[in-house]
Amino acid sequence: MSSEKRYTKNHEWIDISGKAGKVGITDYAQKQLGDVVYVELPEIGRTLKQGDPFGSIESVKAVSDLYCPASGEVIDINRELVDHPERINTDGHETWIIVLAIKNANELSTLLDLEDYNKLIA
């Protein structure tokens, strides 16, 4: 099964596989935050609209909201991050926070591809 990663201007990514997508923050974002000490996770079953905050991430420098890259329902959360939030600092592009059942695939076309995201952070 192929996957496709897309990015928001707020530095979240969604790795799309079929009708679901794993959501996390970019490596750029985790470097800007510094050492992550806490991740607030949403409830499984929560319905979100594109752009809605779904949680927050706290570092030694700041607290930032996490924004949903597409509308959908939270079908899984990365419980490892409760006890080990620092895993986000290990690899921002691989450590997922939530899994979303995507409700409107058309919204994905409003997200950035890797080339456009790299231009944004350049």
Give an overview in words.
- The strands form two sheets. The chain has a six-stranded antiparallel beta sheet with strand order 1-2-3-9-8-5. It has a three-stranded antiparallel beta sheet with strand order 4-6-7.
- The protein is built from four helices and nine strands.
- By secondary structure, it is of the alpha+beta class.
- It has helices at 27-33, 80-83, 87-90, 114-121; strands at 4-7, 12-17, 20-25, 36-40, 47-48, 53-59, 63-67, 72-77, 98-102.
- The mean pLDDT is 94.
- It has one domain: RNA polymerase II/Efflux pump adaptor protein, barrel-sandwich hybrid domain (OB fold (Dihydrolipoamide Acetyltransferase, E2P)), CATH 2.40.50.
- β2 (12-17) and β3 form a beta hairpin.
State the gist of this model.
The protein has 122 residues and is α+β, with helices and mostly antiparallel strands. It is 19% helix and 38% strand. It has helices at residues 27-33, 80-83, 87-90, 114-121; strands at residues 4-7, 12-17, 20-25, 36-40, 47-48, 53-59, 63-67, 72-77, 98-102.
